[in-house]
Amino acid sequence: MPVYLDHAATTPILPEALAAFTDALATVGNPSSIHSAGQRAKMLLEDGRARVAASLDAEPVEVVFTSGGTESVNLAVKGLFWARQVDHPRPRIVVAAGEHHATVDTVDWLERHDGAVVDVVPLDAQGHLDLDGLEARLAAASDVALVTFLWANNEVGTIQPVARIVELAHAAGVPVHADAVAAYGQVPVSFRDSGLDAMSVSAHKIGGPVGIGALVLGRRATVEPLIHGGGQQRQVRSGTQDAPAAIAFGVAAATPHADVQALRDRLVAGVLDAVPSAVLRGDPVDRLPGNAHFTFPGCEGDSLLFLLDAAGVAVSTGSACQAGVPEASHVLLAMGLSEDEARGALRVTLGHTSTDADVDAFLAALPDAVARASVAGMASREPLLGR
Q1: Rounded Cα gap, residues 214 and 191, in angstroms
Q2: CA 6, CA 362: separation in Å to the nearest integer?
Q3: Residue 51 neighbours by CB under 8 Å, 6+ apart
Q4: DSSP letters spanning 114-141
């Protein structure tokens, strides 16, 4: 059976969540219907909402179910941006460098189609947001619609100083959204204590089903909806709500999550011992407990991924190959790495099914994969030709 060490991409559904999901699929009724069948479905839906809210230290009314993290981010960023244009123009979006593409592509769309002005706050060498840079941008502009950032970076795992970011933005009268998809289930996430106006999470990152997430939206926050027609959730998101997915999400949210930090630390030590040239990226301490992100000099990250996959170990890479052109991770570039350094990235992430045997298998396969990837060298940056 393959060794799965890519839990940041998606983690296997928890047995308890799967059981709740399959049992609820037999429930007939639209949660918006007032007859008894509809009310039974609504009870499942609201049970799930309450459990998700409790896991995030939020009120149930603040939990708006969506189709996943990407929709949640889109609803938050676009919705806050549009709502802030009502009384007078505020075209500026302050965004951290190295964000997930759910945010990067959303602000790019707003820039191209709605006249947004995107102001990017740099990261330091460990992936921390430049707080002085953020404060300076907020002080210099009176037209900021919102601030948006990752609670914890999905690639290198660095955790941001959430409370301080919110404090700076609110002092300037600016609402704040955090993409907490990577952080949720890994570290304590309290919406109440954070002071955030909006926060995005996703079920399949914590052992729930794919296809449901949530935007946690404070009672005083205002967003323009993306989807119209029914106004089922505070007029913020319309559409028939998925009660089976909601209760499964809630069960996953209420299930205690595995403590994998000691296992992650053993993996990191093993990598640095087996491959001394490897470099751990991200904050070495203030990082997600299941995240280990390395660069391997002289190696192509994609080569390492394929070689490890052939050895029965599934991991991830911080690079992507689009249209035959190897591309470096925009996160690592934002942290100041060169393109060649960034292209040698490998992300290993642990979750509730991870074991010592999984780490042993990865460490056993890694030296040969690095040796072979080093011989292969770096891929050409020219587009591949052919049919």
Answers
A1: 12
A2: 12
A3: 249, 250, 251, 253, 254
A4: H--EEEEEPB-TTS-B-HHHHHHHHHH-
User: How far is CA 367 from each of CA 67, 267, 307, rounded to the nearest angstrom?
Assistant: 40, 13, 11
**Dihedral, CA of residue 104, residue 109, residue 115 and residue 118, to nearest 10:** 10
Phi first, then psi, for residue 333 (nearest 5°) are -65, -40
Say whether pLDDT at 104 is over 80.
yes
CA distance 107 to 115: 10
The per-residue pLDDT for range 62-86, each reduced to its tens digit, is 999 999 999 999 999 999 999 999 9
Yes or no: say if 276 and 265 are a contact pair by the CB < 8 Å rule. no
Catalytic residues: 321
- Dump strand ranges (E) for 156-229: 176-179, 198-202, 213-217
With tokens 């290993």, the residue in question is 348
Structure tokens at 72: 């949640």
Average pLDDT, rounded, for the chain: 94
The token duo for 66 is 């969506």
255 DSSP assignment:
S
R_g of the chain computed on alpha carbons? 22
- Looking at beta carbons, which pairs linking 382-387 to residues 24 or more positions away fall under 8 Å? 382/325, 383/323, 383/324, 383/325, 384/324, 384/325
Distance from chain centroid for Cα 318: 14
What values do phi and psi take at 37, rounded to 5?
-65, -45
> How far is Cα 20 from Cα 218, in angstroms, rounded to an integer?
28
Collapsed DSSP state (helix, strand, coil) of residue 147: strand
pLDDT score for 384 = 39
Q: Which of 156, 187, 181 is nearest to 291 (CA)?
A: 156
Q: How confident is the model over 325-350, as pLDDT tens digits?
A: 567 999 999 999 999 999 999 999 99
Residue 386 has pLDDT above 80, yes or no: no
| % of the chain exceeding 90 in pLDDT | 93
